[in-house]
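Action item from last week, closing it out:
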Amino acid sequence: MKPIPLDLVIKDVTIAAPSTGWAPVIGWLACAGGKIAAIGPAAEDVPRANKVIDGEGGLVLPGLRNAHTHGSEILARGMADGLDLSAWLAAVWPRLDALTPEQMAVAVRFGALLSIRCGITSMVDHCRRNPMSDEVLEAAAAAYDQVGMRTLLAVMVRDRVGANNRAVGAAHLGALEPAHKQLERIAAAAQRLASDRVAIGIGPSASIRCTDEMLTGAADLSRAGGLPIHIHAAESLDEVDDEQRAFGMTAFARMEHFGVLSERTACAHCVWLKPHDREILAATSAVVVHNPVSNLRLKSGVADVPALLAAGIGVAVGTDGAASNDGVDVWEALKYAALLPRRQGESAQAPDSATLLDMVTVSGGAALGSRGVPFEVGAPADFCLYPVAEAPLTNDASFAPALVLSGPRRPSHVVIGGVLVLESGAFVHIDEAETVRQARHLARELLA
């Protein structure tokens, strides 16, 4: 039996990954059938392949996983600066909630290109548009497929209204669709739109913005279809206080009551937690997504990541939407995650560099619904090659800290599913200049 020919080999590189404990290994790697087929040391002969790339001493890392963002917000970077979460939502989202399918496609395509340039190969788009439509979802999924980005499209749902019959947390919205109709749309989309790059998930906006019916229905759909749930939780103190007054319990107690929390659930933010909330998260195996940059930008506070890790809770990292982060740089978010615990001085129990790097790879995969190790033989071939000038200068104990604190920013090559999407700094299948032109035109039109 003849061996299966290799599709791609990257030679003469330094490799670091969870499987190496983030210690650098000099060698080569090979891909076949969209998977990592082999990883070898420099002393071994480099195998033949249909395409061989000389890494010239560069650095290969697993693709980063942005575990929480909102794709359409890329159009509103820098908008509503200085506002807290509530005022910011009221300033930004009335415009973005009105995007047409064509405009949504432009936004997410542009954001995906910027993400790839930052070394991101997979992401969770907590996809919002009110009212949502099949056409908008189809446009977003097709755009991510076109770029080649591995994406969990967590479709945002909300159905709770206040005394004024306006949506809680979104006063510009009128009548909201019933919970069952919103969830039926997600179930149908999961069957119709899922591909080898795009998966569909359930994205309750936040428990305080959802009725009991919505939370119960989301939990039932997740169990029946194995769909991930992605939800904002305890992002601001005002929301935490409002939920306690409205329901007599925390968001986590309420989500646990209705079966929302499980190993399929990722909770974004989790800034304002009670000790019992951490116990619930640990017991249900839900993942927390830390968004340090946007939480500071919107004056929401700082999640206690050391306490979460100490409780045995998986923690991933997200940028949040680009309108509250002003970028899509996971390396930047990771540096904030490393430094913020140190503000307490010697009492800080900051996570070490290997743990932090796992948060943007292993735990990021858990938030996407994948709990495997992201860079080993047999795993999907999602990785980035950075020029040697971007790599740490030494291969000693400072290597992993250097990645966290001065991480490489601009990969020369990006591979997703064994396919080169960025080669020698240029996109292979997408007209980047035209994509940027369309996004600039749309942003000026919407935000003028």
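Closing note: Residues 62 and 220 are 34 Å apart (CA to CA).
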